[in-house]
Structures are given as structure tokens and as C-alpha cells.
Design brief:
binds 3-hydroxy-3-methylglutaryl-coenzyme A; eight-stranded parallel beta sheet; binds magnesium ion; about 45% helix; TIM Barrel; alpha/beta; about 15% strand; single chain
Length: about 300
């Protein structure tokens, strides 16, 4: 299949990226990061998460973050909502899109959201209906689509089962997520192709963590089978608190550099994303986990 002229890159750094940080990051820093990312041209930013603060303390400032950002017209600000309590908070915070997050692995579902896959879908039905009633966009995310830290292998059919159930809830978009970064290109192509039998491929996205260094290869492999939406995290931030050892999402700078080289339009200013990556890395007191971001920043300071 020919590569596309254009893709959508969804920035998930402010949520997936920061959720696992141990030190509390002030809301002003998160707000500044989101605003830098919208200014850089991302049209979809996962900005916050309305989950239990006991489970994910770093996201406890989500209401403040959503209230403090400068909304850029046309940008979709997404938030995670595991239940109606999260949905009510998302609604009050004027989120544009709510994300219900399920798993293709029973074991991970229990660890991450404390219920079975079937129970989670039942809980999401109410959230989905409320999202539709309020004209909010609805996205479904499927964790552990390529492997699980607790149960190991996950079959393409179990991913397809969850895709079907999320479609039935009315999701506008569905993420196929490699939570622990274990997928490799051919495996990714087989799961994506199987998922596309259940949901319009134009609405399927690839959410890759780079734990095993496979994320860019997996994105390229996904492009080859028709996936046109990818998630990434500025400075390669991230990790899931309930997936031990899982490292960050693929770095936005690396994805944008590759897309530029392939002549695929994203509408995003790579230089501005490099700046945002250096900004947050400086705040966290460590180097960005983006090869392209660090190389471009070094090149700048050398000239
Ligand atoms: P539970 O303990 O079974 O829920 O947790 P509960 O209903 O019994 O509530 C327990 C307490 O949490 C109560 O407070 C509730 O009020 C409160 P208490 O009475 O004890 O003081 N609570 C809430 N507070 C704020 N907002 C809420 C909320 N809900 C309940 N929405 C629950 C179930 C789902 C809430 C919990 O397991 C949870 O919050 N899990 C979230 C885990 C999480 O955020 N994981 C990371 C995101 S997923 C991810 O990163 C993967 C992804 O990137 C894709 C990929 O890479 O795979 C998306
Ligand atoms: Mg993730």
C-alpha cells in the first residue's frame, strides 16, 4: 500500500507522558507544556486524566490544567474518563473528547482499572452514552494489544473482540496500544489488519511505547497497512504506573522527523516541538528521551 500524503499525530505527553512522574509537577508547568504543543500545531492533545488521585496522583491537578490552558480554536483537548465520576469532571472541565480505556488482556484490566474487561465495557457504556448526549468526541483505547506484562501473549482476536465492543459503544476513534512496547513490525501489521476488519481503518490509531526500541519501525509498518493516526509524546515522556518497566511513548520529535523525511504532512512545526521537549526535560531535570529532539537541539547550540 502506498504511504499517505498526510497523517494525524496526537500528542499524549501531558497525560501519558507525565502520569508516571513521581515528583508532583506544578499545574503551571503542565499548562505551559500544553500551550506550547498547541502553538506547535498539534490538533489533538491528550491534556489530562480524570481518574482516581489515589491510583494516579500526578493527574490530581487535571481540573486546574484544563482551566488554565489557552484553548486554540480547532484543537481537540482529550481527557481520560474511566467512569461517570471522571466523565462529570471532564464535562465540567470542557474537554472536547473523552477517552474510555479498556484492555485486550484480562490481567491488565484488573491491575489498571480494577475490573474485568466485560465489567469495564459495561461501565463505559454509560460514559459513552453521556458523551454522545453532550456531543463530545469519544475515543476508545485498547491497552496490551501486543503483549501483557502479567499474562504474556495477547491474540489478535482478543484485540478484535474489544475493538468490536468499543465500536458498538459509538467510538469515533480507537487506539491500538502497545503499552509495554513489545510489538515488532509484522506482528503489528497482523493486529492492525485484524482490527481493521472490525472498525474503519481511518479511525484506528497506533499508540506505541518504545520500551524495546521498536516504535518507529512499528509506525512505519502501520503506515504500510493503512493506519493514518499515531500517538506520540514530546521528549519521549512516559510510562504506565500499572505496567512495570514500561518506558515512554515514542517521542513526538522522532515521529515528526521521520514523517518529514518521508514527505508525509503533519501540520506540526518540528522546531517548536523540540523547544517544548527541551522545556519539559529541563523542568524534570533530565535529558529528553528523543534522539531527533536532542540531535536537533545540539545542532542548534553548535551553530
Ligand atoms: P476503584 O477503587 O475500583 O473505584 O478504582 P471505586 O469506584 O471503588 O472508587 C475508589 C475511590 O476512587 C473513591 O474514593 C472514588 O470516589 C474515587 P474514596 O471514596 O475512596 O475517597 N474515584 C475517583 N476519583 C476521581 N476521579 C474518578 C474516580 N473514580 C473513582 N474518575 C478506577 C477504579 C477506575 C477509578 C481506578 O482503578 C482508576 O482510577 N484507574 C486509573 C488507572 C490509570 O489511570 N491508568 C493509567 C491510564 S491507562 C494508560 O496509561 C494506557 C494508555 O496510555 C494506552 C496504553 O499505552 O496502553 C491509555
Ligand atoms: Mg500509553
Amino acid at each position: 500500500m502506498a504511504l499517505p500524503d498526510k497523517v494525524k499525530v496526537v500528542e499524549v505527553g501531558p497525560r501519558d507522558g507525565l502520569q508516571n512522574e513521581k515528583e508532583t509537577i506544578p499545574a503551571e508547568v503542565k499548562i505551559a507544556l500544553v500551550d506550547r504543543l498547541s502553538a506547535a500545531g498539534f490538533v489533538n492533545i491528550e491534556a489530562a486524566s480524570f481518574v482516581s488521585p489515589k491510583w494516579v496522583p500526578q493527574m490530581a491537578t487535571s481540573t486546574e490544567v484544563m482551566a488554565g490552558i489557552t484553548r486554540k480554536p480547532g484543537v481537540v483537548y482529550s481527557v481520560l474518563t474511566p467512569n461517570m465520576k471522571g466523565f462529570e469532571a471532564a464535562l465540567a472541565a470542557r474537554a472536547d473528547e473523552v477517552v474510555i480505556f479498556a484492555s485486550a488482556s484480562e490481567a491488565f484490566s484488573q491491575k489498571n482499572i480494577n475490573c474485568s474487561i466485560a465489567e469495564s465495557i459495561a461501565r463505559f457504556a454509560e460514559v459513552a452514552a453521556a458523551a454522545k448526549a453532550h456531543n463530545l468526541r469519544l475515543r476508545g483505547s485498547i491497552s496490551c494489544a501486543f503483549g501483557c506484562p502479567y499474562q504474556g501473549e495477547v491474540s489478535p482476536d482478543s484485540v478484535a473482540d474489544v475493538v468490536r465492543q468499543l465500536r458498538a459503544l459509538g467510538c469515533d476513534e480507537i487506539d491500538i496500544a502497545d503499552t509495554i512496547g513489545v510489538g515488532t513490525p509484522r506482528h503489528v501489521q497482523s493486529v492492525m489488519t485484524r482490527a481493521a476488519q472490525e472498525f474503519d481503518i481511518a479511525g484506528l490509531s497506533g499508540h506505541f511505547h518504545d520500551t524495546y526500541g521498536q516504535a518507529l519501525a512499528n509506525i512505519y509498518a502501520s503506515l504500510e497497512v493503512g493506519i493514518r493516526i499515531f500517538h506520540s509524546s514530546v521528549a519521549g515522556l512516559g510510562g504506565c504506573p500499572y505496567a512495570k518497566g514500561a518506558t515512554g511513548n515514542v517521542a513526538s520529535e522522532d515521529v515528526l522527523y521521520m514523517m518529514r523525511g518521508l514527505g508525509i504532512e503533519t501540520g506540526i512545526d518540528l522546531d517548536a516541538v523540540v523547544d517544548a521537549g527541551q522545556f519539559i526535560a529541563q523542568h524534570l531535570g533530565r535529558k529528553a528521551v528523543s534522539r531527533a529532539g536532542n540531535a536537533l537541539a545540539a545542532k542548534r547550540s553548535a551553530t
